[in-house]
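Bug: token stream looks shifted between consecutive jobs. Job 1:
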Amino acid sequence: MNSAPFKNIDAAILCGGLGKRLAPITRNIPKPMARINNKPFLDIIINQLSSYGCKRFVLCTGYKSEVIEDYYRNKYKSSRSEVSFSREEEALGTGGAVKNSQALIKSNIFLVMNGDCFCRIDLRNFLNFHLKKKAVVSIALMKPDKATAVGWVTLNDKQEIAKFSEKTRRGESNYINTGIYIFDKRIFSIMPDKKRFSLEYDLFPKLVNKGLYGHIIEGDFVDIGTYENYKKARRLFKS
């Protein structure tokens, strides 16, 4: 695997959620640290990124942040990988968490991923798409297994994102947001002035037709936000 393009691309992973729907598993640990076959779910995401050559990880922590920080500070103490922590002292939302990590992100292009989701994605293809489109933000999109009340995305014929329909039944939109993004560092000058905001609700809709693109992928996708999905993830990675 040619991983050279990724060794200088930072990866910010959003790990700050409360994980209330996954209680009691998350009573003493943050959601990304839920165990999947004797290792934290977050390990699976980091291993996936490492397989593409990623070396620098920014973990955006919040709830029970010390659990994540202690584990990964010790794990990567003697590693060639570099792990840093962007701690939220208060809940900042997905957008606020990325903004809070700005000082730690060194690369002009960087990955952003949710720490409670896993998707089989060819990151090389995703990066090539982003560069070809000269995008400000590229979002990995996929068709879901069934129509549910989720956030739907509409693309135009240039694969620009033309519309968001959050938490509605499936209509004209055909794709869902997987929570995997490539950002150009220009994004920090476009973000709202406020500290707390959402990528999905407060930032992306303002970028419609302004450099926001959707890359369509296929593959396994799992979100461990609920106990049923957590069990699904355990089955997926056991096999």
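Job 2, same session, no restart:
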Amino acid sequence: MKRVIDPAGTDAVILCGGKGERLKSVVGDVPKPMADINGRPFLDILMDYLSNFGFRRIILCSGYKGEEIKRYYGKKSRSLDILCSHEEEPLGTAGAIKNAQALIKSNPFLVMNGDSFCPADLREFMKFYDRKGADFAMVLAAEAGGGDSGAVELDGSQRITIFIEKAARNKSGLANAGIYLLGKKVLDLIETGRKISLEYDIFPKILDKKFYGYATKERFIDIGTPERYSKAKESLKNGR
């Protein structure tokens, strides 16, 4: 199959099944990606980010209170083709993608976490993927610190040689930014109907494949805790 490097022809999958237990004290009982950021859902920011790079077909992998996400985006007037893939039980980041397999048309396809944001240049990321002849690629950002962002190391060709999620030490200073380009062959590695993690179950097993890391100088933010959520609101104020 001909490789797809044009965002307009590439599906973008957003993993937005998070329950957000740690955020309930500050955002109430809403799906984590729908947490309010200065008057709008965090998921809106991700949608605008994708749209600005030319992505038009977006698949939302929902879980907890997924009907709220579907209802909200079903009413919005956009130039985007938004589809929803809902999981009845938590399936993990890889399981959610497998659950959406019937909706994924492009090869490769983009994947983003629905509770973090890194303003990497996605067009350059796609060019990098194509130039490397990659099967899989990951955006790597300046490490956020705190020791929970994982250990990622590259060789001289930017191939990922070490990936350990939430490792205690990370010599490279690079962190998984939660943005991936995945060839559709990854779907063959994910068992249907099981809770499976990209970070823990899949990525460590494909280090012998053409798996590359695209390093950006951008930092990433996430909204997983009240403290990080507060910082995210400040960072994203006035569209920054």
